[in-house]
Amino acid sequence: MNKKTLLFAILLLLIPVLTACRIDLAGQEEFTRSAAEKMRSQSAKEEDSVEDSDEKETSVEANAEPTKKAPIGEPTYKLEGQATLNGNEISIQGKTDIPPGAIVFARLRRYKNDAELEEIKNYRVEPFSNTDGDVYMEVLSDGTFSSRGRFERQNLSLRYRLELIFLPEIAQEGTRERIIEELGSLDNLSGMVPIETLTRNSFKEPVVPGYIKYANVLKQNEEGGDGVTIEFVSPENLPN
Predict the structure, then answer these.
(1) Contact 125, 111 (CB under 8 A)
(2) Which residues pair with 110 in a beta bridge?
(3) 113-122 burial, b for 16+ CB within 10 Å, e for fewer?
């Protein structure tokens, strides 16, 4: 066999091997390119997912209920009054635009003995969740009301919060009907706040919306604790 014939034979033997190598290299390149594209695609999807998640979180945050309560609005009904302290006796006089015949009431709630006076004056401390006395007053045709009977504080050496309250939802039927005639529904009343009714009756709602004003009754031997007239203030106008 001459050299040309031998070289041709060798080439014939190498062609399948080289072709296989070329195919294998081409396959590796294709696999590498495909894998890279998949990685880029997956990365893009993950970025989009993160962006969507961020957008959703932002959207949720934007649409979330505010942690701070919204303003209660201008009250539908005004409830104004003052109380005169004379020893044990407390005399209340007031005026309102609540329909005549409605019942407003006042109640005393005792502060803890260790409550700071400054905190009490600024209404930054809550009294006990029970009542040490109450009085019910009917709104007259001229919009006035008063505590005609005796309303007393039992202990002159204690401090109390005196609360003046009107609760439309549990008012007598005639009052509710009058309000509905004027406004269409009790739901149309504005400016109400949640009020603890202090009820022990499991069939009654312990907290209902209503109108409330505050006044502090201090110890008799403290300044402003006796022989004075104190004004009721609304929750939204309490000292800062």
Answers:
(1) yes
(2) 160
(3) eeeeeeebee
Q: How many CB atoms lie within 10 A of CB 162?
A: 24
In angstroms, the Cα distances linking 5 to 8, 9, 11, 16 are 5, 6, 10, 18
Kindly write down the DSSP assignment for every residue of 192-220, as one continuous string.
-EEEE-----TTS-SEEEEEEEEEEE--T
Q: Is the pTM of this model over 0.70?
A: no
**How much is the CA Rg of the chain, to the nearest whole Å?**
40
Q: For residues 36 and 27, give the distance between their C-alpha atoms in angstroms, rounded to a whole number.
A: 14
Question: Which residues in the chain land under pLDDT 50?
Answer: 17-32, 34-36, 38-71
List the helix and strand counts (H, then E) for the chain.
3, 9
Contact by Cβ (8 Å): 191, 168? no
Residue recorded with tokens 């959703």: 56
Residue 238 confidence (pLDDT): 60
Distances (CA, A) of 122 to 162, 165, 176: 14, 19, 34
Quickly tell me which residue has 């907290």 as its tokens.
207
Q: Which residue do the tokens 């509710």 mark? A: 176
